[in-house]
Q: What sequence folds into this?
């Protein structure tokens, strides 16, 4: 079967498109998660037709199909957990159509997120979802995980910006979905399905008008709790900034050492606030936020309308995880999301848990959304620390769920959290999802071992209550 | 509904009761139509059978609402005006943008897949939905999402039920993101003379402050009136006082340059009231001799599509009124004849004309006699086989609103 998949692919698509030697396949074994598995073959299609052909051949061989964008996913969504075929989208990276007037574009899934906004900025428009990985991650990968980013506080996540997709089913047939179509919202189902329902080969995205004015404010607080309280107060005042981000002292120190963006080093936490909109609202919005920050104990406040300074602040915020390399050889990042009023309590608990396990923890998070990213620092060579990270991580997730939260805000479930999903959803909830999987992928060949718990019968649906 | 007998009415008082009711109906093979405020029952085809009407009025209340979290868990049968009242006390709202808010329910608005003219600004109700509890035909309750504003834990199942018109399950509970109420609201109405129209529409596209909604109304004489103008531009601005003031100044000078000197303004509640009347008109086919379609498409073609509708009406001797949505691309096309008989006589040819002219057009409302011989959905999407398979998987007995949905689902 192994030889038959690779040889059939080679025959159909040629050596320039197909990879099958172990040394060539090694790069497709991993993404940004720790575990990896070697695929049987990989293809790098140029268009939907080639992708569809590859999927059909893999299914005929009974081999799984795993889509791959940049491989920047943190939860193992792109690892070929059961071998099979990896479909790399790197060559399908073009903007196929751009309709400035109607604020939409059709793009290939391998297009890098930031490349899209850069390409269209001259028209005064932008693509809103901006995950921190946007310099490398692809639109297709973003669709797979329903990626977020700092600015989804007011703009929403990827799913709010996808108008339709083109996808390939297991028979290699190409389908189109559109929000304009009558019928069930297949677009909404496909976004966030992590490649388990089909292979997305193009995406229709909604574009937005660039705001007239943008201001970024930086407030320094004595600790994360007071910064979190300020976040709730800003929202409670009826202000919805485009972004509300918190970094604690550990993160700020690492980031400042790397980027020199001017973050205060004496603060327990910094709060990054961005407001955007008509220029008439800027002064009042900024004043209100500064006042709230002050009443919640801010040590300092500064703001900037300068695009370059803003860029520098955002670049360093988005590079925060990478900058941690200065502190520890490895880090483990989590992605839980809680109601934002629970932030101070959750942060307190995370600190306690990290302390109990003797692990340094950095907190950098999308505070406005309640989306936490605690980073547990460790050294992979220290087996005791690795065990501690796993246990502390589980405890943190359980804490977040107990506070009304969930286990993933934007990174996805992937391979890593497929068992943890049972902490959030019961058998009936997962069975409903399994029914959708049954329809799109009855043979469980699209990205198997992802999202759904291992060994669970979630894919199986109980016999319906006796049908008359 | 064209059920042969009067349906039995069931009004569950809890989500679990609703699920049990559906399971019992599935067991008996009894066809179920789910009923909320009955404001959008005109969407889709009349179900082929209806033995039981399950009313959601017993599932009522804003249950889980902390204004500081800006999220609200709402039972499916709660009316939109009740939601607006509870959230409004805290300066928040959910822009459902749906007709007849006093009767319309959260679950019904979602099930109908309603998306109004303000969606270009605030998103569709689907975009504000963060979690759900659905009563399914096998008697289970399936949850999806949660009470957090960002969530990628499992499939985004909530979206499947939005727009499913009660063919997959009953929306017992819906969790939403809430938004801060805009501080000011202003409706601007300007007359459109045919020779100035194109310049005016172009001027709207260039406004620095995008209106929350931008419509061209033709006809609908009793709503959003401007003296002696059949065709008028209706713009809704929502935001801070300062922004609304500037938007008005910008608008007046832009329209002035396009040759339109006069603009009528409604503020605050009057603006909200007038705008609500426009949205009500989307589905108000009172009288049996009217048929309303919604054509979806690119914003840049919305107005042209209303002209296509006008031309079709002319060909068939019908009267046409229209709303072109310059921001969302919707074209609302309202056709009427002098008598029911006059319309019925040509309905088949006329509907075929509509289908030929528009890629995506669905019937929003209309007289029962007119609708009896036409399909509400028009173009069947290419993914219909997948949709049928979903229906079979969720409602294997086929009891939920049989025949109502696209492709006779």
A:
């Amino acid at each position: 079967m192994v030889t038959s998949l690779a040889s059939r692919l080679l025959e159909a698509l040629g050596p320039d498109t197909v990879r099958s030697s172990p040394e060539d396949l090694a790069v497709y074994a991993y993404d940004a998660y720790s575990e990896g598995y070697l695929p049987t073959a990989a293809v790098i299609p140029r268009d939907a037709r080639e992708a569809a052909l590859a999927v059909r051949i893999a299914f005929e061989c009974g081999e799984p199909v795993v889509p791959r964008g940049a491989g920047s996913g943190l939860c193992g969504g792109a690892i070929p957990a059961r071998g099979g075929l990896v479909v790399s989208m790197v060559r399908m990276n073009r903007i196929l159509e751009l309709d400035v007037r109607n604020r939409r574009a059709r793009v290939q899934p391998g297009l890098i997120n930031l490349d899209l906004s850069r390409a269209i900025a001259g028209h005064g428009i932008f693509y809103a979802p901006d995950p921190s990985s946007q310099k490398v991650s692809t639109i297709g990968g973003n669709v797979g995980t329903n990626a977020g980013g700092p600015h989804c506080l007011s703009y929403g996540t990827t799913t709010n910006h996808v108008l339709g997709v083109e996808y390939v089913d297991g028979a290699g047939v190409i389908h189109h979905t559109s929000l304009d179509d009558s019928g069930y919202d297949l677009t909404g189902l496909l976004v966030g399905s992590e490649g388990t329902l089909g292979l997305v080969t193009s995406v229709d995205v909604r574009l937005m008008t660039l705001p007239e004015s943008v201001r970024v404010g930086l407030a320094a607080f004595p600790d994360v709790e007071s910064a979190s309280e300020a976040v709730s107060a800003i929202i409670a005042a009826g202000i919805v900034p485009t972004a509300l981000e918190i970094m604690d002292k550990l993160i700020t120190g690492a980031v400042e050492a790397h980027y020199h963006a001017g973050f205060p080093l004496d603060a327990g936490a910094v709060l990054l606030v961005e407001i955007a909109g008509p220029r008439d609202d800027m002064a009042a919005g900024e004043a209100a936020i500064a006042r709230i920050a002050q009443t919640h104990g801010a040590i300092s406040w500064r703001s900037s309308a300068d695009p370059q300074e803003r860029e520098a602040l955002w670049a360093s915020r988005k590079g925060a995880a990478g900058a941690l390399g200065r502190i520890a050889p490895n880090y483990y990042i989590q992605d839980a999301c809680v109601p934002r009023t629970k932030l101070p309590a959750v942060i307190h608990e995370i600190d306690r848990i990290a302390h109990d396990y003797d692990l340094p923890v950095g907190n950098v998070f999308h505070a406005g959304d309640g989306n936490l990213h605690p980073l547990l620092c460790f050294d992979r060579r220290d087996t005791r620390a690795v065990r501690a990270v796993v246990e502390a991580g589980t405890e943190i997730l359980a804490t977040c769920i107990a506070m009304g939260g969930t286990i993933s805000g934007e990174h996805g479930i992937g391979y890593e959290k497929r068992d943890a999903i049972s902490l959030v959803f019961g058998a009936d909830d997962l069975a409903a999802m399994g029914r959708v999987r049954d329809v799109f992928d009855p043979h469980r060949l699209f990205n198997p071992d992802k999202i759904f718990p291992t060994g669970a019968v979630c894919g199986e649906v109980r016999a319906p209550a006796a049908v008359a | 509904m064209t059920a042969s007998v009067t349906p039995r009415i069931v009004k569950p008082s809890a989500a679990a009761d609703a699920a049990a009711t559906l399971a019992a109906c599935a067991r008996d093979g009894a066809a179920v139509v789910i009923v909320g405020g009955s404001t959008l029952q005109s969407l889709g085809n009349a179900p082929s059978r209806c033995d039981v009407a399950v009313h959601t009025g017993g599932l009522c209340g804003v249950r889980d609402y902390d204004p500081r979290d800006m999220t609200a868990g709402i039972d499916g049968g709660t009316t939109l005006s009740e939601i607006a009242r509870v959230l409004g006390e805290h300066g928040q709202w959910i822009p459902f943008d749906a007709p007849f808010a006093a009767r319309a329910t959260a679950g019904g608005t979602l099930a109908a897949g309603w998306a109004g003219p303000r969606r270009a600004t605030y998103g569709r109700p689907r975009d504000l939905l963060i979690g759900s509890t659905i009563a399914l035909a096998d008697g289970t309750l399936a949850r999806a999402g949660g009470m957090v504003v960002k969530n990628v834990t499992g499939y985004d199942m909530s979206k499947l039920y939005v727009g499913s018109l009660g063919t997959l399950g009953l929306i017992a509970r819906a969790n939403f993101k809430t938004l801060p109420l805009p501080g000011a609201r202003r409706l601007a109405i300007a007359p459109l003379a045919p020779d100035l129209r194109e310049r005016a529409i172009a001027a709207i596209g260039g406004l620095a402050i995008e209106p929350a909604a931008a419509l061209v109304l033709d006809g609908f004489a009793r709503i959003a009136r401007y003296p002696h103008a059949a065709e008028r531009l209706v713009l809704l601005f929502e935001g801070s006082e300062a922004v609304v003031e500037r938007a008005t100044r910008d608008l007046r000078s832009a329209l002035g340059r396009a040759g339109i000197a006069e603009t009528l303004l409604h503020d605050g509640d009057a603006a909200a009231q007038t705008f609500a009347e426009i949205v009500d008109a989307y589905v108000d086919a009172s009288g049996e001799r009217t048929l309303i379609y919604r054509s979806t498409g690119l914003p840049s073609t919305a107005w042209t599509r209303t002209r296509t509708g006008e031309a079709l009406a002319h060909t068939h001797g019908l009267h046409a009124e229209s709303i072109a949505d310059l921001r969302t691309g919707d074209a609302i096309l309202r056709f009427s004849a002098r008598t029911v008989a006059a319309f019925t006589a040509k309905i088949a040819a006329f509907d075929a004309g509509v289908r030929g002219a528009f890629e995506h057009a669905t019937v929003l409302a209309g007289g029962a006699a007119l609708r009896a011989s036409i399909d509400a959905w028009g173009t069947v999407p290419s993914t219909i086989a997948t949709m049928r398979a979903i229906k079979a998987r969720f409602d294997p007995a086929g009891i939920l609103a049989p025949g109502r949905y696209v492709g006779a689902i």
The radius of gyration of chain B is 22 Å. Chain B has 13 helices and 18 strands.
